[in-house]
Amino acid sequence: MLSCRDSWVNRLGVRLVVASVDQAITDGIVVDDGKTSRNRLQTGTLLHAIEEEGFTAAFGGGRRDEEKARAKERVYSHRDEFGQWDPKNQRPELWNLYNGRIREGEHMRVFPLSNWTELDVWHYIGRERILIPEIYFSHQRKVFLRDGMLLSAGEHAQLRPGETVTERTVRFRTVGDITLTGCVESEASTVATIIDEISVARLTERGATRGDDRFSEAAMEDRKREGYF
Amino acid sequence: MPVAASSRPSMDLLRFATAGSVDDGKSTLIGRLLLDSKSIFADQLEAVERTSISKGYDYTDLALLTDGLRSEREQGITIDVAYRYFATPNRKFIIADTPGHVQYTRNMVTGASTADLGLVLVDARHGLTEQSHRHAVILSLLRVPHLVLAVNKMDLVDYSQDVFNRIQQEFTSFATKLRVPDLTVIPISALNGDNVVNRSEHMGWYEGPSLMHHIEHVHVASDRDLVDARFPVQYVIRPKSDEFHDYRGYAGRIAGGVLKPGDEVLVLPSGFTSTIAGIDLFDTEIDEAFPPMSVTVRLADDLDVSRGDMICRPQNAPEPLQDIDAMVCWMVNAPLRPRQKLAIKHTTRTGRAMVKDIQYRLDVNTLHRDLETNELGLNEIGRVHLRTTVPLFCDPYEKNRTTGSFVLVDEATGVTVGAGMIN
Q: In chain A, how many domains are there?
């Protein structure tokens, strides 16, 4: 992941700003009580970084087809001075006239891929030959099964009784908190074979692999209200 | 199982807007289009089934697929516009699913603003209602080029041709009062699937297409204006690098017509003319650009061109207007009143606008014009005169939905408060 990111930074010649959850815990910006997932801790970390850097807009890759709360998201999505999303009072978005007006301390989340589907993204990556992290392609990985998801074994994962580690050929459909994001068994090692695989998939990308969406029916809506991406 | 159909990269796209309440069977219809085109995934269906059971329903409530917010699920109504995506071997589709009640007119207007096709549903047992009139009026105001009236629940009227004909005639006569370029009326049963994807076996008297066949084949490419060249400048690209030292390009999205290298062009508001030296699509040069392509245009002469300017043709330019006559849909609680000052955004151009006069309020159920009114409330639509601080380069909305539309923004809060269509 990180080497792919760094090669993009080099190629584009842009300044990289990293807000890390680890650093935020050390600095006391967010509190790791041992029960809160890394995913949840990203929210406070992100909001702090946006405020520190004085960013007035942040681009995200979220798509409306990913999840039902995301289906309600605007392309230009307003966040108040607490970084909160107010889904019931969103600005109407008509034609392609986007309204980016904000007041002091507020910011915009901008989702240019709102109307893309997972397949659209892969077609685009294939057509434009875009460099992406290896983790999306099939590889050998030590995994264990929990709640129907294949999770990565390793220092972050505490095995529960009855769980056993095996090595399998897998890839990731989404990349998130490693303790909550599952991989899928897959032989797809090229963009073309990934497209074939997704075309016949019976599970959505998040449904198949995202533990963070499973806390409740409104898990994503609740996190987004707090300021999660 | 989702089909490999959608795996073709550059398929044609149709955006359609639906409006209606649970009673019309709208969610059932959308659910069926998604199910029958195999666009619902197993985990989504399981989640909906689980929730339906926990709510004590004895059927799977497909509305739960589109009602994404907790408050919508709690109240059992669609509040906001929900977007759904599906594809068949022939086309990709984006559905803008909007609530049908009058208190959500602004959401219908939003969903219709980008739609190629509008779908109005009626219950065959009840015929046309105030709500079906309202939907048709809004779709025609927003100049949605194709309209479909789906007469649903035909199974509950014994698939009667008489019932269908009566509704069809009534609607067709109502539609003559609107500007509806293309109307198709289809008898369906969303619940049983009659004429949704496959032709019904119960309505031998109906010779038209199924709904799916119609939306797969309706011709939308010609709805775009390919005659009047309009290129609102979004951004000036001047790389500060040695490699592109003399590069100066104007980036934006083509709003009308076809642009080619060598074309003579006029830049507004300056009034200078030049010729197109080249058109770039990211890192390749292209021979022509047309809507809705996003490109960078280079001119032969060094002119002062900035964001909000309009590149067009000397003999075919939009009108620079400071007095705007428009239909406005008002979208917030505090009413629109004469003398009110607002920010206005039209194409890539922003300015300030003052309300000169509200001519009338339109009753979207009856088309009646209320000339006595002096304000527009939430969800109301009326004809408004505005005076702007800068000229806007306008075409009538019926000619061009991009150069004919604008939004009004509250200068204090930044909230989008109104949407306008220029007469």
A: 2
At B227, the amino acid letter reads V
By the 10 Å C-beta count (0-12 exposed, 13-18 middle, 19+ buried), B200 is classed as buried
Do B4-223 and B319-422 have matching folds? Answer: no
On whether both A58 and A109 belong to a single domain, the answer is: yes
CB contact under 8 A, B80 and A72: yes
* Chain A residues 79-108 with CB within 8 Å of chain B: 87-88, 90-97, 99, 101-103, 106
* A148 within domain boundaries: yes
Instruction: Tell me, yes or no, if A202 comes closer than 8 A to chain B by beta carbon.
Output: yes
Q: Which residue has the tokens 């909230």?
A: B415
In tens, the pLDDT along B246-303 reads 889 999 999 999 999 999 999 999 999 999 999 999 889 999 999 989 999 999 999 9
B123-B124-B125 Cα angle (round to 5):
90
Cα dist. A139→A121, A133, A188 in Å?
Answer: 21, 12, 9
pLDDT in tens, A155-191: 777 888 988 999 999 999 888 777 778 888 899 999 9
Domain at B4-223, CATH class: alpha beta
Annotation: CATH topology of B231-312:
Elongation Factor Tu (Ef-tu); domain 3 (2.40.30)
Please identify which residue in the block is written with the tokens 């104007």: B250
Please, which pLDDT band fits residue A73 given cuts at 50, 70 and 90? confident
Judged by a CB distance cut-off of 8 A, whether residue A125 touches chain B is no
Q: What are the pLDDT digits (tens) for B141-189?
A: 999 999 999 999 999 999 999 999 999 999 999 998 888 889 999 999 9
Looking at beta carbons, which residues of chain A come within 8 Å of B87? 117, 119
* Residue A170 covered by a domain: yes
Side-chain half-sphere of B30: how many Cα atoms within 13 Å? 31
β B319-330/B381-394 pair status? antiparallel
ipTM value, please give it.
0.86
CB–CB of B306/B232 below 8 Å?
Answer: no
The DSSP code for B88 is: -
